[in-house]
Design brief:
Elements: H1 3-11, H2 18-24, E1 36-41, E2 45-51, H3 71-87, E3 99-110, E4 119-130, E5 133-142, E6 145-157
Antiparallel strand pairs: 1-2, 2-4, 3-6, 4-5, 5-6
């Protein structure tokens, strides 16, 4: 963890708040899975947060009596963080109204369950940008422990 990440995570600082996230991403409740951005290095990486609460609609059925955040939604949260990074990265040449579509995931692994009360830290690093396709190395952690990781592919459609 970089010093910037550690400082912002400790102080509760927010580089991008929910209002700007809503301007960047097309997602809305109940599918918006990024609450704030702590660190943003355009063209390089991002660290964002998702506060996981018992009020999440998926917990009613996944699983009653033992709520666990579905892995596919953890991947989606990482992809949304990568999307915010993309909008802030000049090499993508994004304009308002552009949409990044999830195109695939490689090397996805899940290491621990994510439960209500957890704060999911989402990290995405740009590995490659080629003709409107981005490849991102992503991680999701809870209290510094790896919950999920993978390499996400996203394609730009305007």
């Amino acid at each position: 963890m970089s010093a910037t990440v550690a400082r912002n995570a400790t102080t509760g600082g927010s580089l991008i708040d929910i209002q700007e996230i809503l301007e960047l991403l097309p997602h809305r409740f109940p599918f918006l899975l990024v609450d704030r951005v702590l660190v943003l290095n355009p063209g390089k990486d991002i660290v964002a947060l998702k506060n996981v609460t018992i009020n999440e609609p998926f917990f009613a059925g996944h699983f009653p009596g033992r709520p666990v955040m579905p892995g596919v939604l953890i991947i989606e949260a990482m992809a949304q963080a990568a999307g915010i990074l993309s909008f802030k990265t000049p090499e993508f040449n994004l304009v308002r109204g552009s949409i990044f579509y999830f195109a695939g995931i490689d090397h996805a692994r899940f290491k621990r369950p994510v439960q209500p009360g957890d704060q999911l830290q989402l990290e995405a690093e740009i590995l490659k940008i080629v003709r409107g396709v981005g490849k991102f190395k992503c991680r999701a952690t809870v209290d510094g422990k790896l919950a999920a990781e993978g390499e996400i592919l996203a394609v730009l459609k305007t």
